[in-house]
Design brief:
By secondary structure, the chain is of the alpha+beta class. Helices cover about 45% and strands about 20% of the residues. The chain is built from six helices and 16 strands. The chain has helices at about 1-20, 25-50, 95-155, 160-190, 200-215, 355-370; strands at about 55-60, 65, 70-75, 85, 90-95, 195, 195-200, 220, 225-230, 240, 250, 255-265, 275-280, 290-295, 320-330, 345-350. It has a six-stranded antiparallel barrel with strand order 1-12-15-14-13-16. Strands 2-11-9-4 form a four-stranded antiparallel beta sheet, with no helix packed on it. InterPro entries: MdtA-like_BSH, MFP.
Length: about 375
């Protein structure tokens, strides 16, 4: 930027010397040089503070690593590199055989659990009947026992008959207690419920849901609308549910975020809603307009996290920058190929010293046209 101003001033000075036929001597050259230094210093001071510029800017985008939820061999890959997909579209499939077997097994266990509940209901009904019969027998033998107890004293009932009625009563009492215990156990087994469902059935249902979930994980789908990047996955490869070993990288459509990083000296002049201009090397000769949506609330280098090490100020290198989020119009890039992740140069214009903003805008356009001149370090082949 400084070089552009110097070159512009030098060109103007040369034209002035030629057009106005200014004599070239030590006085005029020194005056012109000092004037250039003064003008350059004033412009830079006013522009850099009131209309800040940065070359540290990038169009960021969010990605999601696609990780398999289950372990298995990949049987089919339905997407290709850089293919755009909709939310829910199938990306790839894993061999479902073992997971389908697990689902079938859990379904059988659920059916068995439901059958057992029916058996428990029937057993409860039988125990209720058995207890009623035992209680009736107990009542009858008790009446006989109590009657013979009164009659044995008068000799109306023999001692042996009384002993027999007493044994019958005690036996019926024991049978009634056993029947009551069995009834209580049957009631506990039958009424063991969770949210109105028997525990055996609930356990089998939960196991079936888990098995069905694993089976569903054999079909991996797109989380949102977006693009699949760098598809290296092929059928026959082993998919492993490890976060550190993703199988694909997925870029979301609505995840792009343009961020420009400014020096802290510009903190007082960058405000939300301010006009911004952006120059992409990917689009030479074009200046894109935007607005500041968000000014970073903190400088990253100043953050502290709990650790077992004391903070060493000497380990913090650099001053750090202020991140500024810039939004563009919805159709700002229509007709242009600006790949996500592209770098850029940004100028933000404040409401102060507005005449100086014209110089900044001119320089931004000169920077944009300068992007037509570039080299990738190519060399001509050696001739022998």
């Amino acid at each position: 930027m400084d070089l552009l101003i110097l070159m512009t001033y030098a060109a103007i000075a040369i034209v002035a010397f030629k057009v106005f036929k200014v004599p070239v001597n030590a006085y005029t050259v020194l005056t012109t040089a000092l004037g250039g230094v003064a003008i350059l210093a004033a412009l830079l001071l006013l522009m850099n503070y009131n209309h800040p510029y940065t070359s540290v800017a990038r169009d960021y985008y969010l990605t999601t690593p696609i990780v398999s939820g289950v372990r298995g061999h990949v049987t089919e890959v339905l997407v290709s590199d850089a293919q755009h997909v909709k939310a829910g579209d199938v990306l790839f499939k894993i061999d479902p055989t073992p997971f389908q077997a697990a689902v079938d097994q859990k379904r059988a266990q659920l059916a068995s659990a439901k059958q057992r509940v029916e058996e428990l209901d029937e057993n409860l009904h039988m125990q209720e009947q058995a207890y009623e019969a035992a209680a009736s027998l107990l009542a009858a033998t008790k009446d006989t026992y109590e009657r013979d107890k009164e009659l044995v004293a008068s000799g109306a009932v023999s001692q042996s008959a009384f002993v027999q009625s007493r044994q019958s009563y005690l036996s019926a009492e024991a049978e009634a207690r056993m029947a009551q215990a069995e009834l209580k156990r049957a009631e506990l087994e039958t009424t063991s419920l969770i949210d109105g469902v028997h525990t055996d059935v609930a356990n089998a249902q939960a196991a079936l849901v888990a098995a069905q979930f694993d089976l569903d994980q054999t079909v991996v789908r797109a989380p949102t609308d977006g693009i699949v990047l760098q598809v290296f996955l092929r059928p026959g490869m082993m998919a492993v549910p490890l976060p550190l070993k993703p199988l694909m990288v997925f870029q979301h459509d609505d995840s792009q975020l343009f961020v420009a990083s400014f020096l802290q000296n510009n903190a007082q002049r960058i405000q939300e809603g301010a006009e911004a201009e952006v120059v992409f090397p990917a689009v030479p000769g074009r200046v894109f307009k935007g607005k500041v949506r968000l000014v970073g609330a903190a400088v990253a280098l100043g953050q502290l996290q709990p650790s077992g090490t004391l903070v060493d100020p000497d380990s913090v290198q650099g001053d750090g920058r202020i991140n500024v989020v810039i939004d563009f119009d919805e159709n700002a890039f229509e007709g242009f190929n600006v790949p996500p992740g592209s770098s850029a140069e940004v100028a933000v214009y404040s409401e102060y010293m507005e005449p100086v903003a014209v110089v900044r805008k001119v320089l931004m356009r000169m920077k944009s046209w300068a992007n037509f001149v570039f080299s990738d370090g190519e060399h001509l082949p050696n001739s022998h």
